[in-house]
Write a structure and sequence with these properties.
This protein has 97 residues and is mainly α. The longest helix has 18 residues. It has one domain.
């Protein structure tokens, strides 16, 4: 299984070793979705609305996360919206002239 990245301190890249560690990772929204960490500002009910509640919903969500891990790093999802939109703007300008 590919290793998942996490930041423990600004500028220091570490990796989450497995799903158990990801479940408890304080730097990931995943830990709140799984119910290990309570964050008032994180709308976990919205996420669960896609997968269902209880054990079956948890199983579906875990399958979804594992499926994403198996796909690996996707360049279009890295760097945030501003970086992607700037790249698209550059491509548009190059195409125009």
């Amino acid at each position: 299984m590919p290793r998942l990245a996490r930041l423990d301190a600004p500028g220091v890249l570490h990796h989450v070793k497995d799903m158990k560690e990801l479940n408890r990772n304080p730097w990931s929204g995943h830990s709140a979705i799984m119910g290990y960490v309570k964050r008032e500002w994180q709308d976990t009910d919205y996420v669960w609305s896609f997968f269902g509640r209880g054990h079956e919903g948890k199983r579906r969500y875990q399958a979804f996360v594992n499926g994403g891990i198996e796909k690996g790093k996707r360049p279009e999802l890295v760097g945030g919206y501003l970086i992607r939109s700037a790249e698209e703007e550059d491509k548009g300008q190059k195409a125009e002239g």
